[in-house]
């Protein structure tokens, strides 16, 4: 839901985590991939918060 506007990928991850905090969710894993911050080499970032099952 952030693909239309230019936004820092770290801000996008934090916003996604904040949106899930409003609901009754115990844990969340957010993964974003591609040419992050306009770099030529693509990479993936993953952030986990809370409790997650194996």
From TrEMBL:
The keyword rRNA processing does not apply. GO terms for cellular component: ribonucleoprotein complex; ribosome. GO terms for molecular function: structural constituent of ribosome. Residues 7-54 form the Small ribosomal subunit protein uS3 C-terminal domain. Keywords: Ribonucleoprotein, Ribosomal protein. One of its GO terms (biological process) is translation. It holds the Pfam family Ribosomal_S3_C. It comes from the Eukaryota. Belongs to the universal ribosomal protein uS3 family. This is Small ribosomal subunit protein uS3 C-terminal domain-containing protein. It comes from Oryza brachyantha (malo sina).
């Amino acid at each position: 839901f952030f693909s239309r506007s230019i936004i820092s990928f770290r801000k996008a991850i934090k916003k996604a985590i904040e949106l899930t905090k409003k609901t009754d969710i115990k844990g969340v894993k957010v993964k974003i991939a591609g040419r992050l911050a306009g770099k030529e080499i693509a990479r993936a970032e993953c952030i986990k918060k809370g409790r997650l099952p194996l």
